[in-house]
Design goal:
122 residues; mainly alpha
Length: 122
């Protein structure tokens, strides 16, 4: 997808600040147009069970999934916030409760540096 989008941007001669998908009069696409297109693509590409599920029901769900994955993969919050166009405060206020599974690795790294001795298992 990235390759296709980059090719499209090159072919169209788009510059930073140009809209990748402009609205009818060159501005922002209306929410109703975006929602109709998203609903149509989901119905076409997903199985009936997937379509009926909450998976990707809203476009924002894809963004939420990506940010959650970045944080769970250990991407520093400042970097994830920058990529997402958010402040770290906003990012963590929304996604902090989604971060999981990093504690064992963090403990190992800290113990390897002898920063902590005898950490509890929780």
């Amino acid at each position: 997808m990235t390759r296709i989008l980059r090719e499209y941007i090159r072919e169209e001669g788009l510059k930073p600040g140009d809209r990748l998908f402009p609205g009818e009069k060159g501005g922002i696409l209306s929410g109703s147009v975006t929602r109709r297109a998203w609903r149509s693509v989901r119905k076409e590409e997903l199985t009936e069970v997937e379509y009926a599920s909450p998976m990707g029901k809203r476009i924002y769900d894809i963004r939420h999934t990506r940010l959650t994955k970045w944080l769970n993969d250990g991407i520093p919050p400042a970097q994830a916030a920058y990529w997402a166009g958010n402040s770290v405060a906003v990012l963590l206020s929304v996604y902090a409760q989604c971060i999981e599974g990093q504690l064992p690795d963090l403990k190992r790294r800290m113990e390897a540096q002898e920063d902590l001795i005898g950490l509890p298992e929780d």
